Amino acid sequence: TVSTEAVMDIVKSGTCGENLTWTLDSQGVLTISGTGKMEDYTSNGGPWYSSSDSIKSVVIKKGVTTIGKHAFIYCASLENITIPEGVTSIGRSAFESCTRLKEITIPEGVTSIGTCAFYYCIEMKEIALPQSLLSIGDQAFYNVPGPSSIDLPEGLTTIGYYAFTS
C-alpha cells in the first residue's frame, strides 16, 4: 500500500516508453520505472523537460534497458544519477549539459555510450566505465574535465572523435 503522503509528494508523472513510467517528486527526484526501452527524444528532452531546472536526482529502476536520446539534456540542476544493471545503452546527448553532475558510475552490461552523452558536464570529476563497454561515441565526454586518467575496458572497440576532449 502507498501512503497518502507519498502520493501527494508526486508533482508530475507520465510515460517514457511502452512499459515505462516516470514520476517527479517535490524534492526534485525523477524516478523511471517499469520494463524495457526508454523512448528517444528530440533536442528538447524528455517529457519532464518543462521541469528540468528542478530535477536534482534521477533514479532509474531495475528493468529499464536503455536510456533514450536527449532524455535528460539541459537538466542543469541534476547532481546524481542511479543507473541499474540491465541498462545496455546510453543514448546520444542523454545527459548533455547537466552542468552540476559530479560523477557517473556506468554499470556492467552497458555496451554503448552515444555521441555527446555527457557533453559539457563540466563538474564531472569521476567516470567509471564498465568492462562490458564496446563503444564510446564522438564527443561523449567532451568538455568534461574529469579525472586525470580513465581505465578503458579491454573489449572496447570504438572510441569516437574527441570522446574525452576538455
Please, could you describe this protein's structure?
The structure is a single chain. The protein has 166 residues and is mostly beta strands. Helix content is 4%, strand content 28%. The protein has 1 helix and 13 strands, in the order αβββββββββββββ. The strands form 3 sheets. It has a 6-stranded parallel beta sheet, with no helix packed on it. The protein is globular.
Structural features:
mainly beta, five-stranded mixed β-sheet, six-stranded parallel β-sheet
Strand order of the largest sheet: 4-6-8-10-12-13
SSE arrangement, N to C: HEEEEEEEEEEEEE
Largest sheet, if any? Answer: 6 strands, parallel
What's the mean pLDDT score? 93
What is the 3D form?
A: globular
Q: Report the uncertain regions.
A: none
Total E-strand runs: 13
Query: Number of helix segments?
Result: 1
Rg calculated over all Cα atoms: 15 Å
- The assigned structural class equals mainly beta
- Summarize the amount of helix as a percent range: under 10%
Cα-to-Cα separation, first versus last residue: 48 Å
Beta-strand percentage range: 25-35%
Summarize the structure.
The chain is mainly β.
Topology:
Blueprint: H1 4-9, E1 10-17, E2 20-25, E3 29-34, E4 36-37, E5 57-60, E6 64-67, E7 80-82, E8 89-90, E9 103-105, E10 112-113, E11 126-128, E12 135-136, E13 158-159
Parallel strand pairs: 3-5, 4-6, 5-7, 6-8, 8-10, 9-11, 10-12, 12-13
Antiparallel strand pairs: 1-2, 2-3
